[in-house]
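Archive maintenance. Older records in this collection stored only the sequence; we are now back-filling the structure field for every entry so that each record is complete. The fields below show one back-filled record exactly as it appears after the update. Entries are processed alphabetically, and Nuclear transport factor 2 family protein is next in the queue.

ARCHIVE ENTRY
Title: Nuclear transport factor 2 family protein
Organism field: Aeromicrobium terrae
Length field: 196
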Amino acid sequence: MTRFDITQTNAAVERLIETTENPRHRWLLHAYNRHRYLEMAGRWQEIFAPEMTVEHPVYHFNVFGINTVLDGAEAVQAVYDEWARTAQCVFYAGDEKLAVGDNMICSTATIYQQTPGALLAEAGAPVDPGAHYLVGNVEHMIWPYDDEGRLVGEDVWEIDESTRQIIPLDPTEVLTVEMSAKLLDPLIKPLPARTF
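Back-filled structure field:
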């Protein structure tokens, strides 16, 4: 039995959806929920549907010692494609706390991203290049949305890199993108009709 369950990654999001009455806030939470499930299932192309994401999103990442800006859909899509090809799109969230406003969702959670050992070894980590790991850290995220409820970008940063964890995965715990998609497909719902 695995220590991690990808079907529970969005549990905090789904709990907040159930208790949120503001129609706009509920819609943003549904979009956030769908986005994350699509990403983890390797179906990232669907994230760029016109009702979900602006034409020119901008992502800011300051995590794992990398400080970068992805400026525009092509740059963002290249990262999603790389993550899907290497199964780095598989991630888990622990102890997530969320807040939603009219034009943003904020999250704090411990995020565990599945990462091939070869990529970690290239970055200088003392790991087995043939193994897989979860790289865990506490992250803050702000996802801004426009007035139509479309994602404008992501601002993601690691709070304290000294608490970063590299957790070895048993081969039975490693998920392929196909396995992730099969587990998540029943949870990926269409967006509800807009009522705001």
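Update note: The helical segments are 11-19, 23-40, 73-86, 117-122, 177-184. The domain at 6-185 is CATH 3.10.450.50 (Nuclear Transport Factor 2; Chain: A,).
Entry marked complete.
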